[in-house]
Amino acid sequence: MAHILYVALGGAIGASLRHLVNLASLRMFGPGFPWGTMTVNVVGSFVMGLFVEFLVRRLGGSQELRLFIATGLLGGFTTFSAFSLDVALLWERGAGVTASLYAVSSVILSIAALFAGLAISRSLA
Q1: Cβ–Cβ under 8 Å, residues 66 and 74
Q2: CA–CA dist 49, 38 (Å, integer)
């Protein structure tokens, strides 16, 4: 049960930070391009890389710390960071083709699923 609390607390913080970044980018750049989303995706992926390498692999970070930061905080900030980590791990394991297929199919299928959800919701309205 404690593990769920670590994830939940980190997720609440991450989602709040994502919201603040989106608000700031809207004020700074306007609504013409999703700068906030791109910012959280890139920054979240960068921080995930730093965190995984230094805290988990080199310093032996605890499972609680990993759950709080990687799954909770960064997962709440952007799920793209978890996706990026999955691609990187597959690549580093020598599964370059699998990593590439996973990356391309995840993006295409996720966008297609979003459009399918929009279409279904609009047809029911």
Answers
A1: no
A2: 17
Question: Do 74 and 64 meet the contact criterion of CB atoms below 8 Å apart?
Answer: no
Report CA 97 to chain centroid distance, whole Å: 22
- Residue that the structure tokens 């791109």 belong to: 38
Q: Is residue 78 a contact partner of residue 20, using CB atoms and an 8 Å limit? A: no
pLDDT tens-digit profile, the chain (125 residues): 999 999 999 999 999 999 999 999 999 999 988 899 899 989 988 988 888 878 777 788 888 998 999 899 999 998 788 889 889 999 999 999 999 999 999 999 989 988 988 888 889 87
Q: Whole-angstrom Cα distance, residue 119 to residue 91?
A: 35
The terminus-to-terminus CA distance of the chain in angstroms comes to 40
Name the nearest CA neighbour of 25 among 40, 46, 13.
40
Distance CA 16, CA 11 (A): 8
CA neighbor of 75 nearest in space, from 19, 7, 123: 7
- Quick count: other Cβ atoms within 10 Å of Cβ 35? 17
